């Protein structure tokens, strides 16, 4: 059985992109996370030590996403996945969606972004 912890709509200002103004000024990105883990122990114990801290996940995600400027969202999301899997041994897999609502595209659109899923290798 796999349970899920999620964080939706995490807004982060960062400087990712291939165009000069994206790396100079930056823009808002929105991140959604799904963290797959076993929550049977904390659902009985009611102890934070038995689960994954949402606050720590948000801090780790923010640092991994902001600390380096990437050209591609795929790489930025990969950095977040790597950081989460390395910092939280209880998490078996992570699904990350990165929205780039102000992408420099000559079109009217509601949303654009990427979604990736990474898991631990046994």
Q: TL;DR?
A:
With 122 residues, this protein is α+β, with helices and mostly antiparallel strands. The chain has helices at 20-24, 40-45, 54-66, 73-87; strands spanning 3-14, 27-37, 93-99, 113-119. Helix content is 32%, strand content 30%.
How would you explain this protein's 3D organization?
It catalyses: 7,8-dihydroneopterin = 6-hydroxymethyl-7,8-dihydropterin + glycolaldehyde. GO terms for molecular function: dihydroneopterin aldolase activity. The protein is built from 4 helices and 4 strands; from the N terminus they run βαβαααββ. By secondary structure, the protein is α+β, with helices and mostly antiparallel strands. The model has no long low-confidence stretch (mean pLDDT 94).
General form: elongated
What structural category do the secondary elements indicate? Answer: alpha+beta
What oligomeric arrangement do these chains adopt? single chain
Number of strands: 4
Could you give the distance between the termini?
Answer: 16 Å
How can the largest sheet be summarized? 4 strands, antiparallel
Question: Keywords for this structure?
Answer:
122 residues; alpha+beta; GTP Cyclohydrolase I, domain 2; four-stranded antiparallel beta sheet; 4 helices; 30% strand; elongated; lyase; EC 4.1.2.25; Dihydroneopterin_aldolase; GTP-CH-I_C/QueF; dihydroneopterin aldolase activity
Give me the secondary-structure topology:
Elements: E1 3-14, H1 20-24, E2 27-37, H2 40-45, H3 54-66, H4 73-87, E3 93-99, E4 113-119
């Amino acid at each position: 059985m796999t349970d899920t912890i999620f964080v939706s709509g995490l807004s982060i200002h960062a400087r990712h992109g291939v165009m000069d103004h994206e790396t100079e000024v930056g823009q808002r990105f929105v991140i959604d996370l799904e963290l797959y883990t076993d929550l049977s122990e904390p659902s009985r114990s009611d102890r934070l030590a038995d689960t994954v801290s949402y606050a720590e996940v948000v801090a780790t995600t923010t640092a991994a996403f902001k600390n380096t400027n990437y050209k591609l969202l795929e790489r930025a999301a990969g950095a977040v996945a790597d950081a989460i899997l390395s910092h939280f041994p209880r998490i078996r897999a992570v699904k990350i969606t990165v929205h780039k609502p102000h992408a420099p595209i000559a079109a009217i659109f509601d949303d654009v972004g990427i979604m990736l899923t990474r898991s631990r290798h046994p």
